[in-house]
Design goal:
The chain is about 35% helix and about 25% strand. With about 240 residues, the chain is α/β, with parallel strands linked by helices. It is globular, with a radius of gyration of 17 Å.
């Protein structure tokens, strides 16, 4: 579905990513883990088009993604749930969801999608008329996920969904993501610092350090790797 090959990207001609290659098959859950500053968010921004690449290629369902305007990429079925949630704080929960449904697929299937989002994330139905900025951090994360789902995506990219959340709330968010994936078959590309949880659910994982992929493999293989156990799992 998504093929990233030898990608270099960064800011003001200073590369952050160096020859990164990642492959995502339809229906997979792929985790990208690594320390702060490794380039994980830059990778997502390059896929979305808010950061321009310096080299390499990205294809999505056989199309050259770099030849497609960033504004059109969500219409292909790519949803980006950004780091820090970034809800529209002065809009209601329902209005936030409607903002996600501006894609062709989102508009076409809005009523059905909204019903399904409410089934997965019932707190959003309970808080539909409440301003998103008045919600707790965990509830705002649910809004951000729901907004992504409202676009009727084929691929959902989640950037640090546990950031700033208490451990119990972060666990709840992960459980909801697993439920959504199980029910829908949605392809998920996750960036996450909670390495144990990210690899636990992953079909395949990539370890990114200083802008380079230094390890890759199945989630179980990476969790068993001594370098991962020592550097990220405290073992």
């Amino acid at each position: 579905m998504l093929e990233i090959s030898n990608l270099s990207s960064g800011y003001s001609e200073i590369p952050v990513l160096h020859g990164v290659s990642v492959r995502v098959e339809a229906g997979q859950f792929i985790s990208i883990v690594g320390p702060n500053g490794a380039g994980k968010s830059t990778l997502f921004k390059t896929i979305s088009g808010t950061v321009a690449p310096m080299g390499g290629s990205i294809s999505f369902e056989g199309q050259d993604l770099l030849g497609i305007a960033p504004s059109h990429r969500p219409h292909l079925g790519i949803a980006h749930v950004p780091e820090g949630r970034q809800v529209f704080s002065s809009l209601s929960v329902l209005e936030n969801l409607q903002m996600g449904a501006v894609t062709e697929g989102g508009r076409r299937n809005w009523s059905r999608n909204l019903e399904q989002i409410y089934a997965w994330l019932p707190v959003l139905k309970e808080r539909a008329s409440q301003l998103a900025g008045t919600l707790s951090g965990g509830e705002q994360q649910m809004v951000a996920i729901g907004r992504g789902l409202a676009s009727a995506p084929k691929l959902m990219m989640l950037d640090e969904p546990s950031m700033g959340l208490a451990p119990a709330i972060a666990d709840f968010v992960f459980d909801k993501l697993m439920e959504i994936r199980r029910d829908s078959g949605l392809t998920v590309l996750l960036v996450e610092q909670r390495v144990a949880e990210a690899l636990q659910f992953a079909d395949r994982g990539y370890v990114l350090e200083t802008g380079r992929v230094v390890l890759e493999g199945t989630g179980e293989t990476l969790k068993a790797d001594d370098r991962i156990r020592q550097a990220y799992l405290g073992m």
